[in-house]
Structures are given as C-alpha cells and as structure tokens.
Amino acid sequence: MRQKIPMMLIRTIVGLVFLTEGILKFLHPQELGAERFAAIGLPAPHVLAPLVGTVEIVAGAAVILNLLAGEAALLLLLVIVVAIISTKLPILLGHRLGPFAPAKLPRYGWLSFLHEARTDLSMLFGTVAIMIDSGLSLGRKKQWYKPGPR
Fold it and tell me: How many CB atoms lie within 10 A of CB 60?
C-alpha cells in the first residue's frame, strides 16, 4: 500500500487541477472559456472551449478515481501540450508563434517561460507519470484466465 501512495497523490492533484479548470471554463466562459480561447487564437472557440472543458472534467474525474486513468491521462496530455504551445512557447520565444501571441510580460525567455509554465509543466509530467503507471488498456485484449500447461 505504501508504494502506491505517491501515485495516488499525483493522480489526485493532476485530476483535481484538470477537473477544477474544466468546471471553471463553464462557470467563467469570458475569463477561462470561449472568450479566452478566442483571445489566444484557437480555432472555433465556442466549440473548442466547451469540448476541452468537458474533457477536463471527465478525464480529471477518471484520473482521480483511477478508472481508465492511462487513457484519461492521454487526453489530458493532449490538452496540456496544446496549452503550452499556444500560451507558453510564445513567452519562451518572446514573439508570436503563428496565431499565438505572447502574454504582456516585463521580460521573456527561459526564466519567464519556466515561471509562467510551472503549473502546466507539473501537469505535463504528472500526466506522463500516470500514463506510465497505469498504461493504456484500450485496444488490448483482456485475458480473463490463464491457460494451464497442455
């Protein structure tokens, strides 16, 4: 049991952060939902924001409950990678990255990127840890019994 506690803690915080962010996209769409997605430059923000919010809620809960946690973490990994590319990489570069403009900050570069992306990077590594620990079961045949020697 003691060996499982670290992964339980990682699953809990990663799941809770995504679950909360998904709920907030619906509660505050101007700040965190469709209007924010439009300001960032993401396509079809009125469709994409509720879709991402739903994925964050469902997958975040699945990670917390350890139900298809590997698959849920894969979905959350895709969400966080897009978030890092669209909002944090422009900070690292100090200029636009395609349609994505950097936030207005006093300075840009590695230190600003690491500071601004600390939660995103934690979620990135947390989702990878969950995927490694849980594995992906979709597409794998379940073996309900072990055949004995013939």
Answer: 25
The count of structural domains within the chain is 1
For residue 55, what pLDDT band results from cuts at 50, 70 and 90? very high
In a domain, 148, yes or no: no
Residue 146 in any domain: the answer is no
Average pLDDT of the chain, as a whole number: 92
100 φ, ψ (degrees, to nearest 5): -95, 115
- Nearest alpha carbon to residue 14 among 149, 128, 150: 128
Unique residue bearing structure tokens 């879709």: 51
**CA pair distance 4, 37, nearest whole angstrom:** 37
Q: What is the pTM of this model?
A: 0.87
DSSP 139: T
